[in-house]
């Protein structure tokens, strides 16, 4: 598996208005609405705040306003031709599975899904089964970026690489990839025991979630440390912190993984011990005292994941 995450610079500021008009025409947008939308971002001037006052007005030749409500939708329309073109190539990552139609007669059919890209706004990643297909996708993407004047920091791209790794054949320290007309060097592809962040979640090519578990453990320790040094924190407030702060953190960090029950219990243990200590409970006091709805109603990480 080859998963290359791109670094795009100032996406909204570099939108070409004539090309945006063509993108709107591609989805059969009515001409009048197209004129209104493109008219919002043409024949404009801008000024910059400086310590000595405003600068002289200058013409805004390209780009749309990042703070506009409609800007994210316009970017999707503008960027979709590239994604549609890549999907039609069937060069993406292929997943095949059996769909059982009758479990008793062992009747099934094969289902094949091709997944070439993962994109949200200006975050884009291309995923394939091999290097050759990745370079073919990058050639298509590079032509689109050049045509539309979209700036990609090619040398800052991150690579998740999954292939057979051993002590005799470790991951290469530098991987050379042909990106359109250029050849980039991706230094240090993400190691087997490390993760890369993409769209707010941490991804590991070998489905190793130890990095995520450590993040959750550090978050819980930081919250416990913050609470322990403050006076006046009541028992109900501590329960609230766990239910309304720690639980969402765990859910956010573990979006791509199902964490084993024993690990969730291990993650929850420090906070349980902290609360019992604050309440002057014995360490051997049943956890049910904290988790029952009739007393504290402390949410359980295991039950919450189910």
UniProtKB/TrEMBL annotation:
Annotated Reverse transcriptase domain residues: 1-203
Listed PROSITE patterns: RT_POL
Protein name as catalogued: Reverse transcriptase domain-containing protein
């Amino acid at each position: 598996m080859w998963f290359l995450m791109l670094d795009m610079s100032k996406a909204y500021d570099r939108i070409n208005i004539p090309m945006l008009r063509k993108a709107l025409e591609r989805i059969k947008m009515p001409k009048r609405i197209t004129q209104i939308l493109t008219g919002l971002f043409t024949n404009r001037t801008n000024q910059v705040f400086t310590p000595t006052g405003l600068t002289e007005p200058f013409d805004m030749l390209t780009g749309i306003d990042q703070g506009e409500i409609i800007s994210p939708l316009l970017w999707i329309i503008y960027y979709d031709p590239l994604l549609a073109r890549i999907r039609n190539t069937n060069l993406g990552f292929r997943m095949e599975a059996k769909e059982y139609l009758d479990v008793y007669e062992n009747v099934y059919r094969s289902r094949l899904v091709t997944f070439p890209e993962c994109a949200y706004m200006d975050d884009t990643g291309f995923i394939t089964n091999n290097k050759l297909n990745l370079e073919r996708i990058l050639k298509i993407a590079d032509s689109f970026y050049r045509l539309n004047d979209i700036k990609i920091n090619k040398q800052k791209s991150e690579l998740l690489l999954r292939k057979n790794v051993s002590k005799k054949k470790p991951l290469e320290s530098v991987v050379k990839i042909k990106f359109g007309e250029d050849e980039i060097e991706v230094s240090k592809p993400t190691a087997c025991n490390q993760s890369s962040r993409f769209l707010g979640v941490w991804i590991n090519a070998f489905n190793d979630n130890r990095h995520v578990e450590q993040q959750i453990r550090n978050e819980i320790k930081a919250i416990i440390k913050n609470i322990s040094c403050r006076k006046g924190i009541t028992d109900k407030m501590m329960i609230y912190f766990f239910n309304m702060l720690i639980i969402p953190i765990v859910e956010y960090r573990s979006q791509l993984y199902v964490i084993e029950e024993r690990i969730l219990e291990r993650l929850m243990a420090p906070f349980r011990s902290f609360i019992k200590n604050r309440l002057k409970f014995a360490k051997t006091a049943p956890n049910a005292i904290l988790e029952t709805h009739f007393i504290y109603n402390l949410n359980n990480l295991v039950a919450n994941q189910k």
